[in-house]
TrEMBL record, chains A, B:
This is Redox-sensing transcriptional repressor Rex. GO terms for molecular function: DNA binding; DNA-binding transcription factor activity. Residues 79-180 form the CoA-binding domain. Belongs to the transcriptional regulatory Rex family.
Length: 215, 215
């Protein structure tokens, strides 16, 4: 497959393909046409064909897609054929939710460490993983090869924690703090800003009402 | 201001402007040029001007933007000048995280009810709001005007719960379940798919490594 620049929009849609193909696999579907996949996913068939053509196609004219094969290939593109070691920093409700989310592991994301600053949590376990105190983070990272750090901490803590992470060579951060991270360019950041999402919902409610003459 | 179709990309950036303008307000900044805002937000100044021109501009040539005014106006566009009543269904860690997230309230999102199916949670309170059982949902919605339902439930429960919500006239759903909702077109859905986000991170790690010759 030729290497070329894939647009962010295409990349952002790949996990959704992966998810739908997983559901189809579970439902025992072996082959699906782009038209059927299109109806199911509520995107146009031409969008599906275009998106997948970025990676070489995968479909045979007239035969549709082999669901299992396509899912595996998209998984490879997404890097899900390799395991990814992860730590979670911040064991509030959100951190605990992530630590308890078993389906991450099915996709190769392995939680190796949990950290917090609250001494009452010290040594408590989530799914067998002990919660460590933040001042153990550096030593932990020296001994354990960790790829991804999930940050579920208040934004006031972000600077301090991300400095430790960068210093210890962490190259990927999954950021839930309500602020953007300004880190060196070789650190990959994926942010989940819940407030931003809620505001988009609010925007859509507001503009729907305007269109329909409600106030 | 003329009504026109605003692109999804622009809308998705508005909450980020709102967030930065909030930080600037807190820092006591009264006025900012699009160039300074551009550096801070790491987007081009021309993008900022283009985005804001969708709503009539807000800036005076040579004077930059009035931070407080711009924030208020963007807040209005996002519908944050009105309050939005919300319920949260699913009081696992993620639901509790949302229920505890006080900053939603600052933006007018008022949590009015919490629901779960676990009898052990019945009557327990989060920030003074009692957790109710799911079988009380319909009666609750008849008595309380609720705009947004946040779904932090397993995907196996989504169909059942969303049917109740639609039947009771809920028109906006903030969906955290790991599946898309197929609802009537007049129901606005904003989904936060955490796994999709983690897969995007994984994709970026994988493609960064390819580019840099690591395996």
């Amino acid at each position: 497959m030729e290497e070329k620049e894939i647009s962010k929009a295409v990349i952002s849609r790949l996990p959704r393909y992966y998810r739908y193909l997983g559901e189809l696999t579970n439902a025992g579907v072996e082959r699906i046409s782009s038209n059927d996949l299109s109806r199911k996913m509520r995107v146009t068939a031409s969008q599906i064909r275009q998106d997948l053509n970025n990676f070489g196609g995968f479909g045979q004219q007239g035969y549709g897609y082999n669901v299992k094969y396509l899912r595996t290939e998209i998984g490879k593109i997404l890097g899900l054929n390799q395991s990814h070691s992860m730590i979670i920093i911040g064991m509030g409700n959100l951190g605990q939710a992530l630590a308890n989310y078993a389906s991450f592991e099915k996709n190769g994301f392995l939680v190796k460490g949990l950290f917090d600053v609250n001494p009452r949590l010290d040594g408590r376990e989530v799914r067998g993983i002990p919660i460590r105190m933040l001042d153990e983070l550096e030593a932990f990272l020296k001994e354990n090869p960790i790829e991804i750090a999930a940050l579920t901490i208040p934004k006031t803590e972000v600077l301090r924690v991300s400095e430790i992470l960068v210093k210890c060579g962490i190259k990927a951060i999954w950021n839930f703090a309500h602020t953007d991270l300004n880190l060196p360019e070789d650190v990959i950041v994926e942010s989940v800003h819940l407030s931003d999402s809620l505001m988009r919902l609010s925007y859509n409610i507001t503009s729907y009402r305007k269109e329909h003459g409600e106030s």
